[in-house]
Amino acid sequence: MNSLLALKSVISSTSLTRMNHFNYKKLVVLAVLLRLLMMPFYFHPDIKTYHFQSSFLKKGVFNIYSYLVDNKQKLPLKEEFVYFPLTYFSLGSYQIVASPLLGSNFTHWLSDASASNSQSPNIFRYLLILKLPYLILDLYIAYLLMKFFSNEDQKKRAFILWLFNPFSIVLIYAFSNVDIFPVTLGVVSLLFLKQKRLVLSALLLGLAAGFKAYPLLFLPFILLFVEKAKGKLLYTLVCLGTFVVIIAPFISVAAFRGSTLISGLTTRIVYPGLSIGYGETLMFSVIVLAVLFFSIVFGKQNKGYEIITSLLCLLLILFSSIHFHIQWLLWALPFWVLAVALNNKFFWSFIIVNSLSFLVPFLYDDKSMSFGLISGISSLYNLLPIPFAIAQKIYDPFITQSTLHSVLVGLSLVVVWQMLNKEKI
Amino acid sequence: MRYLILLITILVVVAVFIIPFASSLLIRYIPENSQPSLDQTVKVYGKQTVSQSIKVGHNGFSQIGLSIKNPNLANKKDITLTVTENGTVIHHATLNGAHIPDGKFMKFTFDPIFGSNNKTFQITIAAHDANINDTLEIFVTKEIESEVLVGDDKIPGSLSLVSYYKSPTFLYPFSQIIHNVLVRFGLDLPFTVSYLVVVLGCLLYLVLQSSAASFLKDKCKPILFKSILGRINFGK
Question: Which of A133, A171, A232, B168 has its CB surrounded by the most CB atoms within 10 Å?
């Protein structure tokens, strides 16, 4: 009888989900475990491509842009390097450091352009080790996001939201998103800005731009929150100066200009527009960004955390108005987490906006958006039809994408309006 | 927030275990080989057919995949694939040029041929309604030493094709996938052992830290112990 009572007592007082106190260590271990489970098994071909390109650093290649163009004919992978120089140097350096763990066949695997490269016996090792820096930065971002708050509840919320949201896990570990580097530097920059350490903030924002250009979009908005003209000038000079120093050795190289400055994000911002004749085009994204910028300028005087909502609104507007890559969604996630940690009423906006944002690229005509991600487990998954092909049998997938994207635009505009009109954060 | 943690844990477990398993159930046809290189093309039109022998390594042979050029998408007529064994026609499969994008990998599907393991079949591709202005072109590889009969001429090489066999059961593809994964883990033992140690270590830590474990440790053991002692008759 007593043993039955003991058992009943165990069942009634034990709950799988009940935490009597907030155990950071336990949550970190759980977060690491979940990531370790995904890392070896999800394979996006981009990780192989940019690591192949970065592997030339250990052979002494400094200017990767010219090298890839000049040697295109004899290289097995022909893509251009579309990132800014710090991505090349960071990934290349990491490969040198991690080479004992990667093994002797790694370089051969990188050069293997055949369909069977995903069936390499070492692919699980390669994927895990190549994603290790992402894991470290991912955990570091969780730590940084907590530093934005002095309130314990907000710290915990930010910590949990970052480590336990499906979007960052999928973007970083399934899509092998190298944007984690500039995202981390961007968060550190923002933290220094909050602490009024302007030079460090500007330096880090410039460094972030040295990986990918998008942090430069933050500059005009950040300057709104820097007091005094002298501070604004200093911030601009340090940020842009850092960025210029990074790209200076390559700016005269046509291949660099072609593959970074005039590609991807830049063209997608500039090209969608309305021709008004005489060679002029009104650029849709620039219009909406200008509307956002000036509504903040002419709005109420801003303090505190409103830089977070401004940058989040900037990215929401940007994604709404252009054909975005799914990897770009990572840029906004830290700001979402901060916004929701500050005000929980944005939680469902966070979930719905990001879910919709994932659905749009999911319907792209791209194998690596769906079953292709598990081709590292087996190439048999490549036989399965992609969502685009399935959608084609039912209805025009482009209309479906357009509908979803339009709904995303509407929802994003509502969220932006709410944030700017001071659902007080 | 605790429900978010639980939800994400479940989602990751689904992503790593359930999605690969469930997706494998959708795989009906399994390739016997990877597509060889696409070195040159041969035209198929009118009376000019393309034939070659292939040896199949599994039962249930039921698909042939080929890359087909349809220049300017000019061809909108039928192209047929005929499978013969010892001169006897076993199966036909037909595609239409209107649904063949230029250079696309297309599959001819026919009823599974049971008992096809280790047998040699002749496949013939024909586009009798096409003419010189709307030919279809089939890719040929020089990687494989064989012969392709193009009209009345023999050319060295082989059609750059993939042969498929129908999965005998629903779970067969998954069993193949698991086998392949385990073999690859086995081939990289140092990594496998290290990985398992870290993953199991994390799991063990979480189990030891869980409320149930600490409750059992702190409260339950003494109660159970007392209860057991109470049942033992010490000679009373």
Answer: A171
